[in-house]
Automatic annotation (TrEMBL):
Family annotation (Pfam families): adh_short_C2
Species in which this protein is naturally found: Panacibacter ginsenosidivorans
High-level lineage: Bacteria, Pseudomonadati, Bacteroidota, Chitinophagia, Chitinophagales
Protein known as: Glucose 1-dehydrogenase
EC numbers: 1.1.1.47
NCBIfam families: PRK07231.1 (NF005559)
GO molecular-function term, one example from the UniProt record: glucose 1-dehydrogenase [NAD(P)+] activity
Protein family membership: Belongs to the short-chain dehydrogenases/reductases (SDR) family.
InterPro entries the record matches: NAD(P)-bd_dom_sf (IPR036291), Sc_DH/Rdtase_CS (IPR020904), SDR_fam (IPR002347)
Keywords: Oxidoreductase
Length: 255
């Protein structure tokens, strides 16, 4: 029997990078995937890829910063499949500026908090409500290395990701006796569209790319599949005594 046979797993940010890799990895282990993303075409593509490989998946467009949309997303999972076993809150943005706190545009600062932190809070809130009815479940929030140490010139990102760790640790304690485990992963540089084409545009900047690789003791970036493996482990029975962790996935950077 596969590790997640017929488990209902909701993944936000499923259209790209770590969320897409996590969706595919869960499906290979027998899970039913609800692939959620603000980019509907991308979510559809991930669900299509899973179905092509004989897996089970549906997709939904959601903006996690809108509480009503998050409620609909969880309701869809329950309506279609009767329960929610695992949730991975991966949707997020990295921002477009490299600026000190006093220079960072206020609207963009607040927007990042609204998506990365408040959006993740809406997700956890609605997922926990359902898991309490199920009798348990597993949640993994995707924070960042920037949720554990400073990331100069990207203050709203660091603040949002530190917030996700605080939410994770606190909620983990609140529901620990109710069979709901809540953990976070904190990756360093992972080769996804966010890092290659986003704020630092590493795909077009060989020097910055080299620096990003050298940050890890392994002198390379991680692959989204390597983060997915950790997320699956945290959602599996193999980690049954672990909750409230904020686990670096860092190629030895923090060693
Ligand atoms: N790539 C890295 O190096 C790295 C490192 C640490 C943490 N992270 C975190 O991992 C997560 C995934 O990042 P990635 O690198 O795979 O990025 P990505 O850009 O490849 O994927 C992010 C996905 O989230 C979706 N999304 C963005 N805003 C959304 C919203 N409001 N509602 C719903 N979906 C939304 C995007 O459409 C996209 O499909 C993010 O939370 C990111 O902060 C990434």
């Amino acid at each position: 029997m596969k590790r997640f046979e017929n488990k209902v797993c909701l993944v936000t940010g499923a259209g790209s990078g770590i969320g897409a890799a996590t969706s595919v990895a869960f499906a290979k282990e027998g899970a039913i995937i609800i692939a959620a993303d603000i980019n509907e075409d991308a979510a559809k593509e991930t669900a299509g890829k899973i179905k092509k490989d004989k897996g089970k998946a549906i997709f939904i467009k959601v903006n996690i910063a809108q509480h009503s949309e998050v409620k609909k997303m969880v309701a869809l999972a329950v309506k279609r499949f009767g329960q929610l076993d695992c949730a991975v809150n991966c949707a997020g943005i990295a921002g477009k500026h490299t600026l000190a706190v006093h220079e960072y545009p206020e609207d963009d600062w607040v927007n990042m908090i609204n998506i990365n932190l408040i959006g993740t809070y809406y997700c956890v809130k609605e997922q926990v409500k359902q898991m309490l009815q199920n009798g348990g479940g597993n949640i993994v929030n995707v924070s960042s290395a920037a949720g554990l140490i400073a990331q100069p010139f990207n203050s709203p990102y660091a603040a949002s990701k530190f917030g996700v760790v605080g939410l994770t640790r606190t909620a983990a304690k609140e529901y620990a006796t109710q069979n709901i485990r809540i953990n976070a992963v904190c990756p360093t540089a992972i080769e996804t569209p966010m890092i290659m084409h986003g704020r630092r545009k590493l795909a077009f900047n060989p020097e910055a790319l080299e620096a990003a690789k050298n940050y890890q003791a392994m002198k390379r970036m991680g692959q989204p599949e390597e983060v997915a493996d950790v997320i699956l482990w945290l959602c599996s029975n193999e980690s049954s005594f672990i909750t409230g962790h904020a686990m670096p996935v860092d190629g030895g950077a923090f060693a």
